[in-house]
Amino acid sequence: MNSTNRPTRFPELAYAQHAPSLWRIIATDTNQAVGGFYATKAELLADLERYAIDYGCANARTKSDVCMILLAYHDQALKDQLAWHTANNPGGLSEDQIAAFGSGSV
């Protein structure tokens, strides 16, 4: 298996495939595998930001940054839904429809 370390956007971390269905994050200062075991490259890359935060990488987003990004995305999605419903209901939205936006059920 190819165990060549591949760089990431975090200078402190790389990743490598050690065996079939075995991917690991590598600490670049020690060249040692750290963290969990991943069955696929996609799983490892999906968890990389979280691991970088926990590992203390300098350019990792903080957990509060990630929460703020998710809240902003959710807020924009609700605004987009409201705009679509308003445009597609020329008579306006009923109070029940407006209330449903607050509950997240629309």
Q: What is the strand arrangement across the widest sheet?
A: 1-2-3-4
Helicity level, as a percent range? 40-55%
Integer-rounded radius of gyration: 21 Å
The first-to-last residue Cα distance is 48 Å
Our count of helices gives 3
Q: DSSP strand (E) fraction?
A: 15-25%
Pairing-aware structural class of the strands and helices? alpha+beta
Number of individual domains: 2
Low-confidence stretches: none
Described by strand count, sense and barrel closure, the largest sheet is: 4 strands, antiparallel
Order of helices and strands: EEEEHHH
Work out the number of β strands. 4
Shape: elongated
Give the averaged pLDDT, no decimals: 82
Structural description of this entry:
The structure is a single chain. This protein has 106 residues and is α+β, with helices and mostly antiparallel strands. It has two domains: 6-55; 63-103. Helices cover 46% and strands 21% of the residues. The protein has three helices and four strands, in the order ββββααα. It has helices at 41-55, 63-87, 95-103, and strands spanning 6-7, 13-19, 22-27, 32-38. Strands 1-2-3-4 form a four-stranded antiparallel sheet, with helices on one face. A hairpin with a 5-residue loop joins strand 1 and strand 2 (13-19).
Brief overview, please?
This protein is α+β, with helices and mostly antiparallel strands.
Note the main attributes of this structure.
106 residues, 2 domains, alpha+beta, 4 strands, four-stranded antiparallel beta sheet
SSE diagram, text form:
Layout: E1 6-7, E2 13-19, E3 22-27, E4 32-38, H1 41-55, H2 63-87, H3 95-103
Antiparallel strand pairs: 1-2, 2-3, 3-4
